Amino acid sequence: MRLINKLNIYFLISLLVILVAGTYVQYLYVSARVDKRVQKTLIKEKKLLVKQILDKEKVEGFKLYKTEESEVQLSEEQSVLKNEFIKQFFFDEDEDEYVKYMVLKCRVKANNHFYDMVIKKPLLQANDLISSIIYSLFIILLILFAIYMLLNRFVYKKLLAPFYTTLEKLRKYDLEAGEKISFSEKSSTYEFNFLNAELNDMTSKIYKYFDNHKMFSENAAHELQTPLSVIKSKAELLLQARNFEDDDIENIDTILSSVDRISRINSSLVILSKIENHDFSLDTEIPLNPLFKVSLNHLNVIAEDRGINIDFVENDKFNLKINEEWAYILVNNLLKNAVRHNIENGWIKITINKDSFVVENSGFELDDKPTNYFKRFIKGSKTGSTGLGLAIIKDICTKTNLDVEYTSIRKEHRISITKLD
Amino acid sequence: MKILIVEDEFELAESIESYFKQEGYVCEHAPNLKIAIEKVSVYEYDCIILDINLPEGSGLSALEALGNKKESTGTLILSANQLLDDRIDGLNRGADDYLTKPFHLAELNARVKSIIRRKQHKGSNEININEIKINLDSKQVFINEEEVRLTKKEYELLLFFISNKNRVLTKNSICEYIYGDFIDQLDSFDFIYSHIKNLRKKLISAGCEDYLNTIYGVGYNFKISS
């Protein structure tokens, strides 16, 4: 849910609370005021009645006075009673309902006579009062809410603009791509400046750790080469010792081939981390065609043993802005792959066009989706390979803006590499 | 034969030394560039094995510093860096060969021997062991003066065996010698195996003694005493 909608909901809920509480408070206040007013009127009326009693007493003996709203009669008690107000319901036949009255009871003394006096006045009906309060409050709040929503549309969009800019930057960011982002926009809102400052701080820390980590894997892999060389050479020397049983020799050989395997994986890791860590100098274009020829020359030694037929079709020159080292690794890995995962008496077809080149070869059926083989350490069932060859190809292609596509139909494999722009 | 090993990793230098000593070579070890230059200026070496990843910086400059050496001294570069740059750079600056760490001692041995042979051949460039004679220029092999026709790979294999005679050679080291860094899996040995079988057949039928001993599951030993 969007922040604005959330705010709206909270606002709406608080409006409802205000409506209920406001109505109650208003009701109490208004009814208290009305009570006071009515009481004052009653007292006025009382004075008027007393005056009437005095006037009438001179003419005739006053005993009882009664109207709809007041009743005066001669009292048997001989004392004065103070004003007493009571609220009381009386049935109103016209309205056919009980109506609330304010009643004044008192006993007054006039011309040495005591009179009991009861005067009443109808009060405002509570439900009438409440409903009119609710009605007026509701209208006010509705207008408020409408204004608020309108303001939301314009003000919040403007207010939250820096926030959305930051969000969009975060969404587009790709750490792997190596580009750095900075959240430098200044806004007049304290929180957004604070957020941006914290994000800057955090991302620079992430870069630092990421760089450290990358350099670490590169250095670690590099540093491993020497001890591996030592193990390998010592094992080879052991192999030459004359007094070993056949079993011992076989064990040493196993150590040797395991070391070979580690060092192959390790050297692939060195290459991978170098691709990730360093920019390629992409200023000059070099033709890849001669590199294919050099690589094929090396490959022929093993390809002819395996009876693999190599078909090399040069339709055009494929030039690429790439460092020669990486170009060599790219071509070499592609062709090595085609030979390594081939079958005896199989075939390889290499086609070079202006903007693309394709390596096709016979081989084994894949167990997995072709694209999965671009991931590190994903390899076919054959044990010899490191599972890093295609990952290296993919990484170099990504760095040099090439699209690499691997498709496989049963026992035929096809890797095509195309320039992206 | 005298060899200088310029290598900062003591254990590795010692392994190389030990392997070459068994070949009857005289080895000296220089743990850094300064000592290496001193040694080169005083003594004469047949081959210098130079690790170019020395702590003093790129050993390629070492190659130049050692560049004033005699024409007859060969140089083989060792590097932990598989990338092409070093290799091309090294060879351009006058190195005779290049090997990436980690390497097989047998391969280092074969390559150093080949460098020394190339550098020092005056007149005939031949290997003679008992009834076997190899002409390195014409790449011909003779058994009891009778030529045996070998394929390129059979010839390379024979040379590798003779360079590392009386040594245990693993399938892996043989594969790597023949296929270079293109071998990544053991099943390529099946093909090497058939080459070895053919080579053996050809040599025996030409009247050569069967020097090649199979070490079951591991590799071969070319046992010959001259």
Description:
The complex is a heterodimer of chains A (421) and B (226). Chain A has helices spanning 3-59, 126-172, 190-240, 246-277, 289-306, 324-340, 389-399, and strands at 64-66, 70-74, 81-92, 97-110, 113-122, 285-287, 309-314, 319-321, 347-352, 356-362, 402-409, 412-419. With 421 residues, chain A is an alpha+beta fold. In chain A, a hairpin with a 4-residue loop joins β3 (81-92) and β4 (97-110). Chain A is rod-shaped and about 155 Å long. Chain A contains seven helices and twelve strands. Chain B is an alpha/beta fold and 226 residues long. Chain B is 41% helix and 24% strand. Chain B has helices at residues 10-22, 33-42, 59-65, 84-92, 105-120, 152-163, 171-179, 189-205; strands spanning 2-6, 26-30, 47-51, 53-54, 57-58, 74-79, 97-100, 126-129, 132-135, 140-143, 146-148, 168-170, 212-215, 219-222. In chain B, 43% of the residues are buried. The model of chain B has no long low-confidence stretch (mean pLDDT 84). At the A-B interface, α3, α4, α5 and α6 of A face α1, α7 and α8 of B.
- What is the residue-mean pLDDT of chain A, rounded to a whole number? 84
Low-confidence stretches of chain A: none
Structural class of chain A: alpha+beta
In total, the number of domains of chain B comes to 2
Radius of gyration of chain B: 18 Å
Q: What is the global morphology of chain A?
A: rod-shaped
Total DSSP E strands of chain B: 14
Shape of chain B: globular
Strand content of chain A: 15-25%
Instruction: Give the helix level of chain A as a range of percent.
Output: 55-70%
Architecture (CATH level 2) name of the largest domain in chain B? 3-Layer(aba) Sandwich
Assembly of the depicted chains: heterodimer
| Beta-strand content bin of chain B | 15-25%
